[in-house]
Specification:
With about 130 residues, the protein is an alpha+beta fold. The protein has 4 helices and 8 strands; from the N terminus they run E-H-H-E-E-H-E-E-E-H-E-E.
Length: about 130
Amino acid sequence: MQSYTIGQAARLLGVSPDTARRWADAGRVATHRDEGGRRLIDGRDLAAFSIEVAQAGTTEEEVPYTSARNAFPGIVTAVKLGDVAAQVDIQAGPHRLVSLLTREAVEELGLEVGMQATARVKSTSVHIDRT
């Protein structure tokens, strides 16, 4: 499972690294240390916490997305596979994006809960880039 540094988690949550560090220090999100001593957050834990943060409305600022190439970097919080179609949920800071795509596309991208991904929005279509 992918893990994230405090800085990476902060970017995905839409807050400053100091805020993410305070949340970790307070035990709001579990961390562990790598061999270099850096604090890391497990992807599944970060996915669950990102939903909690978004529902509580605790992000520091709204990020304006105004161009035709709206990109929402975030973390995959749910993957629901059907026989042919699939649904992927991404929490990008305070934004929850849901994309309906083929099961084949999800499998080719290797998308799973806890992974970092970017939702790109153009008109009414949401495209997922694995990052």
